Amino acid sequence: MSQLPAREHAYHTDARGTEPFDKTYSLGYQVHHEDWSPFPRVNRLRQTFLDGEYYIDVERLRLVTEAYKEHAVAPRKLQCAYAFEKVLRECELFVYDDDLIVGEIAAPSKASPIYPEFSVDWIIRESYEHPTFEEREHDQFYYRNEDERREAVELCAWWKGKTVEDLINCRLDHDQLKGSEVGEKIFQTNLYHYAGTGHLAIDYPRLMKLGFGGLIDVIQGKLDALDMRDPEYGDKRDEYRAMIIMYRAAEAYIERYAALCEQKAAETADDARREELAAMAANLHEISAGAPKSFWQALQLFQIATSLIQVESNGHSISYGRMDQWLFPFYEADIASGAISKEFALELIEVEYVKMNNPTKLKDAGSMAVRNGRGFGGESLTIGGVDSAGNDATNDLTMLMLEASAHTRMMNPWVCVRMHDKTPYELVVKTVECVRAGYGHPKIFNDGPAVKGMMRKGMPVEEARDYCVVGCVEIDLPGKEYGWHDAAYVNTPKMMEMVLNGGKSLKTGEQLGPDTGSLETYQSFEEVLESVDAQFAYWTDQMCSSLNIIDAAHHDRKPLPYVSGFYEDCVESGHDLTEGGAKYNGIGPQASGMGTCADSLCTIKQLMFDEKRVSGAELLQAVKDNWEGHEKLHALVNSSKVHHYGNDDDYADELFRYMFECYCRHIAGRPTRRGGQFNPGVYSVNANVAMGMNTFASLDGRKAGEAISDNMAPVHTDAGSHDIEGPTAIVNSLSKVDHSLASNGTLMNLRFPEDAVSGVEGRDNLVSFIEEYISKQPMHAQFNIMSAAKMRAAQKHPEDYKDMLVRVAGYSAYFVELGKPLQKDLIQRTELHF
């Protein structure tokens, strides 16, 4: 592709960081690199984190179990509150050297608590059965000693029959289970089957205005005003009482931290550190019952309040909203008064960025099949974009938060830059300089289709413009939406398998879905598409009904009073998030492997019907034989002689659009039990690799076990990539669908080797590419700036690449910690050149 033309940049910003907007940080990952942060404290904190081990922490499990036993007959909401209170009043606290901000998830850094309220069978099994947590190929966790292993298993045994999972298992029927992760893995709901929901962002502006003390006053007022004639009086009373118990426990927790800081200040001989600890204690005293008054205090309240969401529930993707917007008033006031310098503000942000990596989450082996990461995951931090009136919202913190990302280069936070047609040139360039540094952050979201997607959920445009990102790519309205994003992964190629083979498994021949025809019976391509529609209708019915049952089980067994109190609508109504207390209540399952399906349809349409080169029976036999004995046909299907999605080819792109719209049509608008609607997403994150392992051969030229196509991307099989026309062609193909239909988000991975974006010319090409991308209206893009050669070098010499981050999908991870199948998938993704 030739150099992209220079564009007129009419929109500029007065927002400034501490460095020039066009500073080049590095070009890709540098082996044996120097420290990146200008602050020695940050570099020490970062290295301390990287050097630490991952442990299983038993303390929360012990305290929660004691609380549930002590309050065995209390209403469930109050049981949750008493357990939360016991943890905060009795757990061990930690203030680390160099800390400026304190607060963990009731466990030490990199130590994972256990949440028995959700599920325990897998914890008991994987504590002793091979492979144990310690014996996993990757993402290992370690018990500190055998006594704690035995204690954990004994405590978990008490929970058998009492968990969310137990209630789900007894309510799902055979037809629902046969397509799930316990059956054929046509759809997988294991995230919320075994763990908490998460995937939300609270109303941080309201928290910063009121603090815990102000929230208690509001809730107490609602409790006092309850009408005993209200048939929901008892439930609402329990909700308000639970909120108050939990927020008073949070105040006590903060005071415990203040006392610990004062104790450490008294013990240290270092005058500078004593002053820091005294300032930290003062900050904690201020926010324990009141609202923050400074930038530092606002960050401290953010850290405590957010980490306690994870103490209540182990749901991941607890995201940080539009942090450059809600934090800016504190920054602006402190800068204006001279209370802090811009450099100290940046240091505080970088300290907080490192601390965001401390929480870890123990996950079941199935979720870790190819490496999901040991962090909670999904901690997206959104910057940029427009305000409620549609004006650009870039400010100083937007730039500082990008600088902090380039200086820390860790897995968290997942920085998301919102862009639109008037995004300032300086912000685009600064974003590109971070992207060129090759650590996988930030990712880019397009306000145009994202705002339209939010409006499809019933939001007025003013609200829709305030969206943030939670998790990988899910668009969400902070403090107003409980979206159950990432609720299920749908393996659309396995649905396509039912289309090819009369509803039967290609591997076993078992009848799984309805018989809607097979390649041996179809007389026209229209019949094939009708069969696709019918299979999608059947399997989405099974999945969505399962998700409503899972949702109900969470309501019955694990309500969420603590986080519900941060939603004004929950406080006004007295309804928990799990009861539909949020203003917007969705469920968002996502489709994977759309490119595989589109290219499979291309094979059928072109070779079977248009050109009549092969019969349907021959195609069906080829995939049944895993392409063995059909080498010429396999080569043809993987060649440029067959139409493929991703090459700006209307023939193939129309079939991709059909698949995309078919899935969205069968999901969008279905009612949820919380009074909202289902919202479709089209992305796989990294699940395309694990899904491929459990998927038989497909007509796009995959062999059994190969990864299915990732997210919105074109196919790449072991035989080669199907997109061969370069990045402009990919974008043109991608823009032929209306991304706003996927109101739960879309995801697009792009990979450029370092030399493709080197120098001023390479930078400007990437700037122009992103601007053109935004103008064509895809919703999302993220970049790996890394050659296949560098990833292969890391496979050979992992000791030299320990902190090399790669963009896997919606998240970045350390390449050398990934499982081999996922490493292979990353290497095989198409290298794009301008």
The total count of helices amounts to 32
Distance between the termini: 5 Å
Contiguous low-pLDDT stretches (5 residues minimum) are 1-7
Structural class computed from helices and strand pairing: alpha/beta
Number of strands: 20
Report the portion of residues in β strands.
5-15%
Overall geometric form: globular
Write the layout of secondary structure elements.
Layout: H1 40-51, E1 55-56, H2 59-70, H3 76-90, E2 111-112, H4 121-128, E3 142-143, H5 146-159, H6 164-169, H7 174-178, E4 187-188, H8 190-194, H9 204-224, H10 233-267, H11 271-289, H12 295-312, H13 323-326, H14 328-337, H15 342-355, E5 380-384, H16 396-408, E6 414-419, H17 425-436, E7 443-446, H18 447-455, H19 461-464, E8 468-470, E9 474-476, E10 481-482, E11 485-491, H20 492-500, H21 525-557, H22 561-564, H23 568-573, E12 584-592, H24 594-610, H25 616-624, H26 631-637, H27 650-667, E13 677-678, E14 681-682, H28 687-693, E15 716-717, E16 720-721, H29 727-734, E17 749-752, H30 759-775, E18 780-785, H31 788-796, E19 805-807, E20 812-814, H32 820-828
Parallel strand pairs: 1-2, 1-3, 5-6, 6-7, 10-12, 11-12, 12-13, 12-14, 17-18
Antiparallel strand pairs: 4-11, 7-18, 8-9, 15-16, 19-20
